[in-house]
């Protein structure tokens, strides 16, 4: 997994490497195209950005839930590209 800023864009790359699963690569990039916005309560944007839990699994595959405490995320409209390869 990687993340880097280049030429005004944020670039992400992630590769699935689970044993027994087919390899897949996700590549994406985005850049803001508006001023910072604060999503209004009750909107989809608010719902998607105001998550306060993180879920993952441990080495045995057991689900782990962690609570996250943070100030509201600043948001902006984006231009983005996404590509998935297998």
Describe the structure.
The chain is mainly beta and 86 residues long. The protein has one helix and six strands. The strands form two sheets. It has a four-stranded antiparallel β-sheet, with no helix packed on it. The chain has a two-stranded antiparallel ribbon with strand order 4-5. Strand 2 and strand 3 form a beta hairpin. The longest helix is centred in the middle third of the chain and has 6 residues. The two termini are 16 Å apart.
Topology:
Layout: E1 2-6, E2 9-16, E3 24-32, H1 44-49, E4 53-57, E5 63-67, E6 78-85
Summarize this structure as a short list of keywords or feature phrases:
single chain, 86 residues, mainly beta, 4-stranded antiparallel beta sheet, two-stranded antiparallel ribbon, 1 helix, 6 strands, 7% helix
Overall structural class, as computed from helix and strand content, comes to mainly beta
Estimate the global geometry from the Cα principal axes.
flat
Mean pLDDT: 91
Q: How would a textbook summarize the main sheet?
A: 4 strands, antiparallel
Structural Rg: 16 Å
Task: Assess the beta-strand content as a share of residues.
Answer: over 45%
Number of strands: 6
First-last Cα distance: 16 Å
Poorly predicted regions are: none
| Share of helical residues | under 10%
Q: Secondary-structure element order, as H and E?
A: EEEHEEE
Short description:
The protein has 86 residues and is mainly beta.
């Amino acid at each position: 997994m990687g993340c880097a800023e280049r030429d005004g864009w944020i670039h992400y790359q992630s590769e699935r490497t689970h044993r027994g699963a087919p390899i897949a690569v996700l590549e994406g990039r985005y850049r803001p195209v508006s001023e910072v916005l604060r999503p209004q309560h009750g909107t989809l944007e608010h719902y998607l950005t105001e998550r306060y839990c993180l879920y993952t699994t441990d080495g045995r595959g057991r689900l782990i839930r962690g609570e996250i405490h943070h100030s509201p995320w600043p948001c902006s409209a984006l231009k983005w590209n996404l590509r998935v390869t297998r």
